[in-house]
Amino acid sequence: MKTKSIRFIIILAFGATSLWSQEGREQCSITYVANDGFLYETKTGKVLIDALFGGIKGNWCDQPDDSISNLMINVIVPFNNIDVVLITHYHSDHFNGPMVINFLRNNKKSVLICPSQVDEALKKNPGYSDVIDRIHFLKSENQFDTLLAVNKINIRALKFYHGSFFETDSATGEKYDLHSNVENFGYIIDIDGFSLFHAGDGSFSDKSHFETYHFGERDFDMVFLDRTFLLKEGQEIMNSLIHSKDLVFMHIEPARGEYYKSIIKDVPGFSVFTKKMEKKIIIN
Predict the structure, then answer these.
(1) Which residue has the higher pLDDT, 179 or 251?
(2) Burial degree of 60 (CB within 10 A; 0-12, 13-18, 19+)
(3) In this structure, is residue 175 part of a structural domain?
(4) Of 158, 64, 68, 157, nearest to 112 (Cα)?
(5) What is the DSSP letter of 96?
């Protein structure tokens, strides 16, 4: 793996104070919710991505505790005054329809940006009509690239292929990709001088889209990728096309957090979150 340069990062427990007091320098806090769910916060803006989910049976996926879910749904600190809610795709470990509807009803400020498949799922829930005016859904083509702005936060929505999951057709015996038709967005978020990229469940096999979107021509402060990018093909993309001071690997199985920490411990700038509400603060 190519060694990444690392910036000054403060790691805090939930409840730390004086977020914006580091000698007047700009700061961005990254709070881990669960799985691919994060809260990004700067002095003037807040973005919540893939965090409003839960109630999944089994322990194959890290998910928010009830106490965290209640904070989010009832828009209690730190989940108050959220400017933008982003959802990368409709899978249950990234979004829960009733939670999203209730959150939007309780936070009149928030705007939701999501793929059209998420919007179709939301329509089935009571209360959809109450929040429809703040839902901006996007229907992706093979190559999809659009820029949106919400309260001085610039968000670039990009189509990336979802990671494959093959099953066998019981009738034909042929294997097929269960996720081939999933609309999965990656989001570039530019907020108060910080540039973040969250790939959702974007695949390490999707090098072509990283090239099409000219990723190699820009720098990021932090990039969030699926854990599978640690495989050889993913490392090639990270080395050639992703220039970021810090890389966070997501979708970590609850029982394997320490394993992933162990395999990246010698690479500066690589990290995983394993403790819910763990926070990192980036300082410019």
Answers:
(1) 251
(2) exposed
(3) yes
(4) 157
(5) -
Q: Is 187 within a domain?
A: yes
Task: Tell me the backbone φ, ψ of residue 148, rounded to 5 degrees.
Answer: -130, 155
| C-beta separation of 37 from 143 below 8 A | no
Residues in a beta bridge with 145:
158
**158 burial via Cβ count (<10 Å: 0-12, 13-18, 19+):** buried
Distance CA 185, CA 196 (A): 14
Q: Is pLDDT of 2 > 60?
A: no
Residue 104 placed within a domain: yes
pTM: 0.89
Stated as kind and residue range, the H or E segment containing 188 is strand 185-191
Query: For 182-233, what is each residue's pLDDT tens digit?
Result: 999 999 999 999 999 999 999 999 999 999 999 999 999 999 999 999 999 9
For residue 110, give the CATH number of its domain.
3.60.15.10
Number of neighbours of residue 79 by Cβ within 10 angstroms: 26
Residue 85 lies in a domain: yes
Contacts of 244 (CB under 8 A, 6+ apart): 4, 197, 219, 220, 221, 222, 223, 269
Cβ atoms of 127 and 102 closer than 8 Å: yes
Burial class (CB in 10 A: 0-12, 13-18, 19+), 246: buried
Q: What is the span of the domain harbouring residue 242? A: 9-283
How many domains does the chain divide into? 1
For residue 158, give Cα distances in angstroms to 7, 22, 221, 247, 249: 27, 34, 18, 19, 19
